[in-house]
Specification:
The radius of gyration is 20 Å and the shape is elongated. With 238 residues, it is of the alpha+beta class. The protein starts with 8 loop residues before the first helix and ends with a helix. It is 19% helix and 29% strand.
Length: 238
């Protein structure tokens, strides 16, 4: 089910554990084997699974500010999914999220298993961001940001922080971390009373935002780039 793009492996296991998946009218069990002739339903709705050697695809999308990473929004805001091409026999899964006002690199894949591995905290896949803040960081602030700050959901820190230029009140920095908590980069800066005026993700694991890829545009990753992503987590996941 995960390989067919219905969601991450963890999501599918949770649905099975909750009794929301049936095979030929019977409640499914984790690890149960199915084939093309079996009738699969999730929450009472039939689903089609992909069998055989359907290839893994990964898209890189340059997200502009003002789009949500969700298929539905009660407020009717633009969604990143509006830009994605149709895919046969599956669906696109966003690898992590970027908040409404954050721009930059966003990955999508049709492989629930790959998405799960890239997002799982134990694999510590690096995320790099370009951040513009109001004011220049002091040496003590930089030390604190890479040491530890306390957030409402636990301590957090940047793995590294580098000066990225800028003049006047606006200064750019490049920061790297290997977590994907909600609004984590903004909250780390805000913990020291610093205001983030612009935030852009420029790298996820081995994949950097292509400099020629304009906002709102996307492209397929090559087989070599997908292999690099798979290799990033192959040796880390038990």
């Amino acid at each position: 089910m995960a390989q067919s793009g219905l969601g991450s492996r963890r999501d599918m296991e949770a649905l099975i554990a909750a009794g929301l998946v049936t095979v030929n009218g019977e409640v499914a069990t984790t690890g149960q084997r199915v084939g093309p002739a079996d009738r699969i339903q999730v929450r009472g709705r039939p689903v089609r699974l992909s069998f055989g050697e359907a290839g893994t695809r990964v898209l890189v999308y340059h997200k502009p500010p003002g789009e949500i990473v969700s298929r539905a929004d009660p407020e009717g805001r633009a969604s990143v999914f509006d830009h994605l091409p149709p895919i046969k026999g599956g669906r696109w899964i966003a690898v992590g999220r970027l908040d409404f006002n954050t721009s930059g690199l966003l990955l999508f894949t049709n492989s629930g298993e790959l998405a799960e591995k890239l997002m799982h905290p134990r694999n510590e896949v690096e995320r790099e961001y370009a951040v513009r803040v109001n004011g220049m960081l002091s040496q003590e602030q930089r030390r604190q940001l890479t040491l530890s700050v306390e957030l409402e959901d636990g301590p957090a820190r940047f793995d590294s922080i580098e000066t990225g230029g800028g003049t006047g009140t606006n200064r750019w920095y490049k920061v790297m971390l290997h977590e994907g908590r909600n609004r984590e980069v903004r909250r780390i800066f805000e913990s020291l009373g610093l205001t983030v005026s612009r935030l852009m993700r420029v790298r996820y694991g081995p994949i950097a935002l292509p400099p020629q890829l304009r906002q709102g545009k996307l492209r397929d990753l090559s087989a070599e780039e997908i292999a690099a992503l798979e290799a990033e987590v192959a040796t880390k996941t038990p």
